[in-house]
Design a protein that fits this description.
The protein is an alpha/beta fold. 28% of the residues lie in helices and 22% in strands. Helix 2 packs parallel to helix 3 and helix 3 packs parallel to helix 4.
């Protein structure tokens, strides 16, 4: 069953799908509940590049619960199938909740170290999981995740799925489905 997008998201996706520019898609801190949504965005936007800046199975806190490794492996396997089926060039940055060896098993040479600089269409992108891994890097865009922190020139993949059109540098953000933060294990505080 296709994932239904609200009107605003549909318009953004139509804009992306109709663009002749190179498309970079950026995600981060993805719980398994977002995988179908990510697959739907890939199908609609047809990105040329996909960058994941860590915590590939963010509902499984491997750093704190190493006993969940079998579930983590299963989740990374699912996400690898989705991302690889896109045909896009992949860049995968391990996060603090990831096992780099397991990620390399599924993504091989697509795995890059935090702080890596890449260039696409003459535009430099700094890739990291934590904001401090991309701060001060000589880049046009700094892609990261890990928390809700915002930095200059940064695109935070926790806040939504980011798309960059190149060479124009236009950016779009598509929000994750409702409940994503809860599935990440974030506790929301509400005041009266």
């Amino acid at each position: 069953m296709p994932f239904k997008l609200p009107l605003f998201r549909r318009r953004v996706m139509e804009t992306l799908a109709s663009s002749d520019e190179v498309k970079v898609m950026h995600v981060s801190d993805t719980p398994e509940s977002t995988y179908r949504f990510i697959g739907s965005l890939i199908e609609k936007a047809k990105p040329d590049y996909i960058i994941h800046t860590g915590d590939l199975a963010d509902n499984i806190k491997l750093e704190r619960r190493p006993d969940l490794k079998p579930a983590y492996i299963g989740a990374v396997r699912k996400l690898a199938r989705i991302l690889k089926a896109s045909g896009a060039k992949l860049y995968i940055v391990p996060g603090n909740e990831d096992d780099p060896d397991i990620i390399r098993e599924f993504f091989g040479e697509d795995v890059v170290e935090p702080g890596t600089l890449i260039e696409i269409e003459g535009i430099k992108l700094a890739l990291g999981h934590r904001p401090e891994e991309v701060l001060g890097r000589g880049a046009d865009f700094r892609l990261y995740g890990h928390n809700f922190r915002l930095i200059n020139g940064g695109l935070n993949g926790v806040l939504g799925v980011n798309f960059i059109l190149l060479p124009s540098g236009k950016t779009y953000r598509v929000g994750y489905p409702t409940g994503t933060d809860t599935n990440r294990g974030y506790k929301l505080r509400r005041s009266l």
